[in-house]
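The pair is quoted verbatim underneath.

:::
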Amino acid sequence: MKNKLWLIGLFSLLIMGKLSAAPQELECVNYFSKLEKPTAQSQFDTYTKVGECLKYLPTNRVLLKNIINTYRLIFQFNPSHFHLEPFMSFYIENQLIVDEAVRDVVLDEAERQEFFLRLITAQREFVEGNG
């Protein structure tokens, strides 16, 4: 009987943990789906928000595509690749998934190639250091 109660308690904790994460994940999806025209402040906010939302990327392709679209918009405003820094750990571990998402989101071929160039440059600097 004790084992059953213990398992029920553990299961309840797992469920509650999942439910408490859901609003944060939804907040991430909403944030990245609403950004239309980047500003200097939104670039800073995005840099911070990507780091907060990375934990949801392995299971949430909508969020991944929203983040890629946000980066696409930022690159139109500011072509520097340093914005990608908080995204690099996920990119390095999931390069094929990210590349596929970039192909789905960035439809213009020239813009897509430029995006990939920024990813590669940011990855090199992340791994080797900047300078």
The chain is about 75% helix and 0% strand. The CA atoms of residues 38 and 74 lie 6 Å apart.
